[in-house]
Design goal:
Number of domains of chain B: 1
Strand order of the largest sheet of chain A: 6-7-8-3-9-10
Number of strands of chain B: 0
Oligomer: heterodimer
Structural class of chain B: mainly alpha
Distance between the termini of chain A: 30 Å
CATH class of chain B: Mainly Alpha
Bound molecules: adenosine-5'-triphosphate, magnesium ion
Radius of gyration of chain B: 23 Å
Helix content of chain A: 25-40%
Largest sheet of chain A: 6 strands, mixed
Strand content of chain B: under 5%
Number of helices of chain A: 9
Chain lengths: 258, 240
Amino acid sequence: MDNNSTPLIQVKNLSKSFGTNLILNDISMDINKGEKVVVIGPSGSGKSTFLRCLNLLETPTGGDILFGDANLTDPKTNINLHRQNMGMVFQQFNLFNNKTVLQNIMLAPMTIYGKNAKKSGKSKKQYEEECREKAMSLLKRIGLEDKADVYPSTLSGGQKQRIAIVRALAMEPDVMLFDEPTSALDPEMVGEVLDLMKELAEEGMTMVVVTHEMGFAKEVADRVVFMCDGIIAEEGAPNEFFSNPKNPRLAQFLQKVL
Amino acid sequence: MEVLRDFFIKLWERFDRSFLEQDRWKMYFEGLGNTLIIALIATIIGTTIGVIFAMIKYVNKRTGRLNILNKIANVYITIIRGTPVVLQLMILYFIVFSGWDNGILIGAITFGLNSGAYVAEIARAGFESVDDGQMEAGRSLGMSTAQTMFHIIIPQAIRNCLPPLFNEFITLVKETAIVGYVGIMDLGKIPGLIQSRTFDYLFPLLIAAILYLVVVMILTKILHIIEKHFSKSDRRNGGK
Ligand SMILES: Nc1ncnc2c1ncn2[C@@H]1O[C@H](COP(=O)(O)OP(=O)(O)OP(=O)(O)O)[C@@H](O)[C@H]1O
Ligand SMILES: [Mg+2]
């Protein structure tokens, strides 16, 4: 599946502390193009912090994050440019409250690429029209085209999260980062979000997913990572990982959640 | 009976002299108009300053950037809040703008600069009540801090503090009455002018006070309508 020899993301000796509190302790990991990595672990083990370090929403206190050819941790790197290629989905959805659903999806492409529209010989209007069409087709994909002009506050959690996912997709990212995307949802809405994520996985999207949904991990992951006390305590293909855990902390953790 | 009638006739005569005679009522309403103009311009200036300061603080707190601007804002706020507004008025009226003859504008600028130091706090609360996830979502899509501020954070912050900003306007309608101190013709100055012609001290003051009261009550009513509207749409937003 992967014929590109350099990984899409290389995490090298990543450390992160808040004050004197060491949260991530020298973590290294490669993520290949098209790979689906699922990160699990007890609460407070640093899963969110790890994910947020990948796109520098948290600034690492040590180590490097390489994304393609770029070293994201280099202060000279223009992080905005690279974030455009790294979608992120949050537990709390974080749709823009002051924008309609359609505007939520169109805002980033319009603001970021709208300026360049002229150079490619298009008027701003034309570019906006393209963005709108693309946003509408993304909404159709998730069956919410009739919600285009409503504000997020009127939507269910499942609808919000699916819109948050396609909002990230509108930037055509190379990788999608998910931080417990179903944890804030009512149980009956978990399925619709996971189904959309499975579709993305099947289409070959590179994904890093922090989740407590072990079923999703078993079904979708190429690799499962168990994070504990700021290190990767165990990782492996889901079969071996779930049926034959070697780390006692993992065995204990799985017993609790399965 | 006779006594009572004389009493009311006397009252009416005093009212007549203080309000109706020689179209004096026009002076009150001109004064009231000036008061409202001063308060309105002051609110606009104050809101602009306050929102800019709050924005600087918001970005500074989250990114560590704009350090110098943040310090300047703090010094400004400390000085403005730490000195009487009537002194600020005299400094601007007699010294800084001594060459101007547009007293109303000077009064408005004084109170605008003063109000900015207080609105900064109102606006800061407005910015702080915007969920941090909004900025993170914008940044995670690759938008810059400035782009996210402009499209997402500022509109939500201003919306959050519209009711307290309107309240600031109401406060200014009353507080600007001291501009009469340097001879600016607002509603608070009018009683003095009329007193000097009629030698009736009570009635002009009463009339001006009632006009202030009526205007403030109307504005307060509008404020309640705004607040009600906002709390309703907030409930739709999930109570935040
Ligand atoms: N901004 C911050 N400042 C200080 N401490 C923080 C900050 N963010 C996270 N932490 C701490 O870092 C530790 C790891 O947090 P993190 O959110 O990464 O855990 P997690 O594995 O995602 O947990 P959960 O499953 O509850 O989401 C926690 O102890 C948390 O209190
Ligand atoms: Mg977390």
